[in-house]
Amino acid sequence: MAARFLILLLPALAVAKINVELSGKFDTEKPNMQVYLSGNDVGIISQNEQNAFGLNVDRLKDAVRSYFGERPDDVYVRSPTPWGDLYKTYDWTQVTRTLIPKRAKILSIESQPLIVMEQVFENNSSKPATFNVGITQQVQNTVSSTWSKEASLSVSQDISYGFDIEILNGGGSTSFTYSNSWGENTEKSETVTVGASNDMEILLQPKQAVVAQLHANKGFIKIEVEYEASLSGATVVNYDKTYQGHHFWALDIEAVMLTGRISNTIVSKEVINIAFFSQSKVTVQDRNYNTKLMEVTF
């Protein structure tokens, strides 16, 4: 049987793991943070994705007729096909789905001062005594992802995330690195210790009591990442009775979809919420007189 194609065969796309990175200084008044996106995920279109793009057989045949002038008897988007697998025989490119992180924006940056815990130290003896009034507490830094999707895709690789947040005024930095499956709502956490128990000794007189409070700032960052999936490659068609002298044709799927008014874009959105503790300090004040006796920042 005669065959022909109407597409340009392009080199295979380089596949690089999708990365979402956030870096900069955490400042609620003058935000100075940037989100960086890179990579892609490319795969032969699955049946699930074929359905997601609305490429059922009848609709695809109608789109081919709009583009090429005659409705085919058979239409394919991937191997295998009858007649010895036309994609392999003629070295035609199967329809591939490419997913890229298209754009990102920071929705909000907030900070909330908290009293994480407090503890009373009291000298119940009849003599002055030295107390270590340092206090610590384990808290959770968290990152969560919530997805909204137009359709489900068959994405094989995980997305890599890296967040490097610099805290102002000598507050150090907070970092997160992890991987997660595309489209999966999830929450990850890490336990950190705020406060300190060293170098916080104070002399208390008999019957004197002090209140030690552990303070910290809890930062919140909300990010939205938009992903875009599209198709490229060739749809292979068969005409039982030759059309323009050939039975088999390979047609550019993008052109076919455009002419057939089938959208070649599926958009998905991920909202990432980051919550973390920073800038902890311990204050100590006399319980009876409310006078501050000590303040140590960590």
UniProtKB/TrEMBL annotation:
<feature type="signal peptide">
    <location>
        <begin position="1"/>
        <end position="16"/>
    </location>
</feature>
<keyword id="KW-0732">Signal</keyword>
<protein>
    <submittedName>
        <fullName>Uncharacterized protein</fullName>
    </submittedName>
</protein>
